[in-house]
């Protein structure tokens, strides 16, 4: 770990001491914000945040279980037997010592929350969070001690602790003194896990969000325009559709409309199409030459006969119309009833294709 920060036990926004392993420099009390600038100026700097160890308990325990759940349960039971009073909202962290033993630290959750909050407020994202005494080198044959002003951190084969300097010296009179340069993160329990794990930095999504927003706006405008156009053309299409269905009903009376386009294509392909359209076209052309004759209604039967109800001024006009139709290949037969109203004659012509 290239940068070690020991927090001040009385002010978590300050350091008690710090050590820059890359630059080979160390310092005492300093604001975390000033260290943040130093850390930011170095590339790929890993940071260890060491919490004051007075409220922590650190023990070397025989925990050979493979399951983390079993390790945590056994360590918790061991600490319950040794604690003079319950530790509220206790957090546990482990480090492997080999040969089935683990160095276990227990701290109050508030200690970790306050220290991490102070570091993050200063712009420091620690990679490892542990307690100060856990950083001392292990010594199987004895103890080591780090002087911290009127305090001291001690590491023994059985565990580690931080206390007043006089008390620590009395318990570890033969402990080997160490300096900040001797501190090591290797073998120290790390609380930077679980709910306190380092958050992965998300990529800058603003350009993508902006692009996505523009696409959404453009899409919304397009859909709105398409909807309005669709409404407009849907109305026109409905009118055209109704007219087409009326013509279909006239051309193919008695035929239910299921799929009009397919039904028309089927009749065209089978050459069984209706004579409604050709007969109607010929009749319309013939009437265009007769100023005194007009069409009142038109019906078409399933037998292929077109019935036209006509009004005309005189019988010679009707005969002239029949002559034009027969010349165009249409057999025209006059109905048996002819009515006269206000000087206007009305009759029916039954038209069939002569072919």
From TrEMBL:
Signal peptide: none annotated. Residues 28-184 form the GspL cytoplasmic actin-ATPase-like domain. InterPro entries: ATPase_NBD, GspL_cyto_dom, GspL_pp_dom, T2SS_protein-GspL. GO terms for biological process: protein secretion by the type II secretion system. Residues 205-352 form the GspL periplasmic domain. Belongs to the GSP L family. This is GspL periplasmic domain-containing protein. It comes from Parvularcula mediterranea.
